[in-house]
Design a protein that fits this description.
Strand order of the largest sheet: 1-12-13-11-15-14
Number of domains: 3
Radius of gyration: 25 Å
CATH class of the largest domain: Alpha Beta
Strand content: 25-35%
Shape: globular
Order of helices and strands: HEHEHHEEHEEHEHHHEEEHEHEEHEE
């Protein structure tokens, strides 16, 4: 590339950014930013990997039954994602017709069929407005903000022995195989690398050895670490297998009462082939544990959409495309109901943000999208800006 070509290309990039900026400047001095509902529904109101398998007198009937069952399963999974455990029982039983009213569309993957059997995997998209309307009618608050990933150390106590990194730790294997795509909080399960083995052992993890735990967190650059210690026991009276789980979180931002909990799950002692039902037991344990993790996050961002607030915020613009990036990230925040651009200059913007919930919840949700929202010491003025989490590339 010649020097003149290089200068020409750099000028074109600058010109494109400048034109975009001036369009915003001219047309949005007191305009409303369009909040893209489709993007929001794609991030929270879509449920993936719903497996259906139905048999009937013919494949058409089997398919119809599978789709009805799958859509109901997806709705239940959506409510599990956005509602507290204690609030789910407040919902009524919905008819098949009412279930379909929640749905805006669905996709069918991995479809297989015979003359009488239908198997498929569904992706179900829900109508955000309809879900919000029903939950508001029943006065049930809900969460729409994805959480920050947490890491899990699964310790298995079996016959007096402790396992963490060992190959035969089926508890760790269950965590690694668990599909967290429909959870509100992403879960990471570390691999049994030599480095990880050097920093913490099963015994140190179970006993809560603070020095080893903090070294492990620091070396792996973790935001939050959960130590999940599980013990299998046989309940002969009910012919069931039970899993006792102790969950200990190491997040300094948590209140003490939320840092630890004990759970128990149970399944039939034997599967259909007469083998010990350990795989189902461990998967049930992971499901219950991740439900608790999601609940802790929901308690921070839970809102009732019957209430809306407004704040005015000022943002400094350090680069010509900062406002375009802020605008893009605001559209991804579910609590934000609308944004009015009051004024804009080459160096600053003034916004009015309409949102659901409390300002602290809004700030937490914005932080998940790389936006900082802070109030000054006198609680008079709000400022908004980009954090290091957001790239400058559009």
């Amino acid at each position: 590339m010649t020097f003149n070509s290089y200068i020409s290309n750099k000028y074109k990039v600058f010109l494109i950014l400048f034109v975009n900026f001036m369009i915003v400047l001219i047309s949005s001095a007191s305009g409303q930013i369009n909040i893209n509902e489709a993007d929001r529904e794609a991030s929270i109101y879509t449920i993936y990997n719903i497996e259906v398998d139905e048999t009937s007198r013919n494949v058409t009937t089997a398919r119809d039954r599978a789709l009805r069952t799958g859509q109901r399963m997806a709705l239940e999974r959506l409510f599990r994602r956005i509602l507290l455990i204690s609030d789910r029982e407040k919902l009524p039983s919905f008819t098949d017709q009412e279930v379909t009213e929640f749905i805006s569309g669905f996709e069918v993957n991995d479809e297989r069929r015979s003359t009488v059997r239908y198997i498929a995997s569904l992706v179900v998209h829900f109508n955000r407005a309809k879900v919000n309307q029903v939950l508001s009618e029943y006065k049930i608050p809900f969460a729409e903000t994805l959480g920050t990933a947490v890491s899990v150390l699964p310790v298995l106590e079996e016959a007096g022995a402790l396992m963490l990194w060992e190959r035969n730790n089926k508890w760790r294997e269950a965590w690694q195989n668990y599909n967290i795509i429909n959870n509100l909080v992403p879960i990471e399960t570390p691999l049994p690398s030599l480095k990880n083995k050097m920093y913490i052992s099963a015994l140190q993890a179970k006993l809560g050895d603070e020095k080893s735990i903090q070294s492990y967190i620091r070396e792996n650059r973790l935001n939050d670490l959960i130590i999940a210690t599980a013990t299998v026991r046989k309940n002969t009276a009910s012919d069931e297998l039970a899993l006792d789980i102790l969950l200990q979180r190491n997040d300094p931002g948590l209140k003490q009462e939320n840092a630890e909990t004990s759970l128990t799950v149970s399944v039939p002692a034997y599967d259909e082939e007469g083998e010990p039902n350990l795989d189902a037991l461990f998967m049930a344990g992971v499901d219950a544990a991740t439900d608790w993790v999601d609940d802790l996050w929901k308690s921070k961002v839970l809102v009732n959409y019957g209430f809306e607030s407004k704040i005015e915020a000022r943002g400094e613009l350090n680069k010509i495309d900062d406002w375009l990036i802020i605008q893009r990230q605001l559209k991804k925040v579910n609590l934000v109901r609308g944004v009015n651009l009051k004024s804009i200059t080459i160096n600053a913007i003034d916004l009015e943000i309409e949102f659901a919930g409390e300002p602290e919840q809004l700030a937490l949700s914005l932080a998940q999208q790389g936006l900082m929202l802070e109030q000054d010491e006198e609680n008079q003025h709000w400022t908004i800006g980009l954090t290091s989490l957001v790239s400058g590339d559009l």
